[in-house]
Structures are given as C-alpha cells and as structure tokens.
Amino acid sequence: MISVQQAINLLNNNIPKSKKNQLSLLDAQNHILADDVVSTINMPPFRQSAMDGFALNIHDSLVYNLIGEIKAGDSHKMELKPGEAIKIFTGAAVPDSANAVIQVEKTSLNGNRLELNETINLNTNIRPIGEQIKTNEVALIKGTKLNAASIGFLAGLGITTVTVYKKPSIGILVTGNELVKPGNNLEYGKIYESNSIMLQAALIDSEVKKSTIYEVNDDFLNTKNSIKKALNENDILLISGGISVGDYDFVKGALNELQVETLFYKVNQKPGKPLLAGKFEDKLVFALPGNPAASLTCYYIYVKPILKKITGESENSSTIKKEITHNFIVNNTRSQFLKANFSDNNVSVLSHQQSSMLNTFALSNCLIHLPEGNYELKKGSKVDIYHI
Ligand code: AMP
Ligand code: MG
Questions:
Q1: Domain 20-42+131-165 = CATH 1.10.10.10
Q2: Which residues surround the ion ligand 2 when the cut-off is CB under 5 Å?
C-alpha cells in the first residue's frame, strides 16, 4: 500500500498530454488558451468620441459655429475649420480635423451658435486609434482562462474562434447489483444510485460539462465489456465501486484482463483505501470506491487536480493551512481526509465522517488532511486543507 503523496506523485508523472482544440468563443468559456491570441485590428479602429456632445476644431473663443452631425455608426467624413463644431455621439467617429469633444452638459446651443461654458483641452474625450490594443499586438496570452470579460474582449476584436486546451471526454461507469435509479421504487435490498450524478456534478464544478454514464451489474464479463466500451469512447474513465476485495468486486480483474497498467492500487488513506489508478494508452482510469463519501473524496484529492493539469490550468498548491478550532485526537494507521468547514483562518471537523455518508459532506467546504499516527491536535494547530 502506498502513501497519499506517493499516489499523487505517480499520477503527476503519468498525466496524459494536453490536446488542443479550436472552439467558437462561447464554447471556449472556462477553457485555457493554448496559443497567444493576436489582434488583427486596432481597437478602437478610428478616433472615437467618448461622450455625447460636440466635436470642435478649437480656436481661442468659446463660441463655435455648428456645421453638422455624426452619429455612432456613420461613415461620412467632415472637415472642420478652426471655430467650427459638429454634434457628435458616444462611439461615433471623430473627424480628423476635430481636436476635442465637449460634453453636451457643458454647452448651450442657440440655432447654430454653440457656446462652451468652459475652455477645453486638446484631445479631451477622444479615444485614440488603438488606445486599447493595436494591430498585431497580443490580446491574450497562452495560459489565460477565458471568462465573460475575455470572451467579450476577443469578440470586440472580431475574433470568432480560439485554440484552447481540450477538456477530456469522461466516462463514469457505475457498478453494483443493488443500484436503482432515483425515481423508481426501492425494493428491499436495493439503494438509490447516486455516485454517477454526484461525479457528474463534481466534473461540472471542475468545468468539464459533458460526461457519459455507463452502468453494469456485478458480473465479470459485463464489467470487462463495459470498461472496454467506456475506455474506447473516453479520454478518462471513472469507475465507481467493485474495486474492493469482495467476491463480487470485478473491476480490478477486468482492468487486468484489458491490459490496463496499474499505476497504484490501494492507498494508505481513510476514506478511499481501495482506490486504483491505471493507464491505458494515453488514457487514465480511476477506480473509485463505491461508498459515496469515499468516491467523492478520491475525486477531489486525485481526479480534480489531474483534470486541471490536463486542461492547462497553471499550478497552484491544492492545499492551504488553517487553524483547527478544537482539540482533535488522531489515532489512525491511515492518513485521513475529514469533511470540515473553514472560514477565514479557522477550520472545524464535522460529524458523520463515515465513507457511506454524505449528509455532512453536503455542508462542508473543505477536507482536512491529517497524517497517520497517534497524536493530539491542540486547538489552534495548523492543518492542511483541500478546497472542494
Ligand atoms: P463497493 O465499492 O462496490 O463495494 O460499494 C461500497 C458501498 O457503496 C456499498 O454499500 C454500495 O452499495 C455503495 N455504492 C456503490 N456504488 C454506489 C452508487 N453508484 N451509488 C450509491 N452507493 C453506491
Ligand atoms: Mg459493489
């Protein structure tokens, strides 16, 4: 049995190579740019009015002669002599011969006679060509995560598609004769199948929107065939259950027969001891324990960070330190992940830590990682937490 750190290291040494994908801007939301994006235009593309008001060719009097109008979107050009003004609107093209725009609120207009309430400096309220970005400049560098603002920024440069790191396709295979889909009658001996939707939700939190669910009963041949199909159709396979040592746990045997290389099997941790990670060609397989809290814990500690790396997210340490709000006795030969709640600098362990229970996991916002051993943590001691 290996340690948590050894398991993490093994996975880090076997991360599949990130693939690139060209996506339309909106589809690329929450993806990481795989290449720099270069602007092919100046932004703004022309001298642009920042106000509703009057474009002026400044002279040394406050009185101007109004000779016309340019609205946003107009393409006609006008020539202003010193002392002449045109009415102009926010976003409209300022004529080359105009050298300032005065806000309408700072003027009074009588027929064609425009009087300024105050003097105005050259270039006031005119956005210069390329003020935001110039042609051939890099708009966003490789490694940037696309959010609403970056998508708007790129669309404003006329860009319609970008090259990003591909989100892996993920299969979720649930095993177990006892499982019934929520919405159906629960016969004696059965339980509702909840791991598939839980893992789907966790994947959505990890910004992997689509995953495919496969279901299989506790039968060796069916398990093997389902794993084969799911591996064929996905980049990453998450298997739930069937990985312990029971007579009806067929996942390990099926993976072996399918020549999936075991990176590790069994980690010295609680919950989640039976975790297996495997490799098949450039694909990864995680066989997660069936107990829901163990399954989700393994997802957060092992799967989530790997997904981040495959999808090009920059590395930042997955753990941070917080002060525990109460004394806590550790008496365990396995390293533990405890459902907990943190706020500011503090963290508290929650009740109901059993691997079959999600009731307090549902209220927790982190997992505390406690190394194995016999020791007492005093209130105020620093512990490592993983955000979930
Ligand atoms: P296993 O790892 O297959 O031995 O399952 C361990 C425990 O988790 C058993 O009590 C199962 O009934 C339960 N379990 C397994 N798969 C699921 C699932 N998909 N949803 C909810 N509970 C499950
Ligand atoms: Mg089972």
A1: no
A2: 176, 241-242, 290
The architecture CATH gives domain 319-387: Beta Barrel (2.40)
193 lines ligand 1 (CB under 6 A): yes
Query: Distances from the Cα of 383 to the Cαs of 290, 325, 343, in angstroms?
Result: 28, 11, 14
Torsion, Cα of 78, 81, 85, 86 (10° steps) = -10
- Whether ligand 1 lies within 6 angstroms of the CB of 174 is answered as yes
**179 Cβ closer than 6 Å to some ligand 1 atom:** yes
- Residue corresponding to tokens 């935001």: 132
* Full-model pTM: 0.94
Q: pLDDT 10s digit of each residue in the chain, 388 long?
A: 999 999 999 999 999 999 999 999 999 999 999 999 999 999 999 999 999 999 999 999 999 999 999 999 999 999 999 999 999 999 999 999 999 999 999 999 999 999 999 999 999 999 999 999 999 999 999 999 999 999 999 999 999 999 999 999 999 999 999 999 999 999 999 999 999 999 999 999 999 999 999 999 999 999 999 999 999 999 999 999 999 999 999 999 999 999 999 999 999 999 999 999 999 999 999 999 999 999 999 999 999 999 999 999 987 777 899 999 999 999 999 999 999 999 999 999 999 999 999 999 999 999 999 999 999 999 999 999 999 9
The protein residue whose alpha carbon is closest to atom 10 in ligand 1 is 291
- For 51-127, CATH gives 2.170.190.11
Cα–Cα distance measured from residue 171 to residue 159, given in angstroms and rounded to the nearest whole number:
33
Q: Are strands 179-180 and 191-192 parallel, antiparallel or unpaired?
A: parallel
Ligand 1 geometric centre to CA of 190 (Å): 11
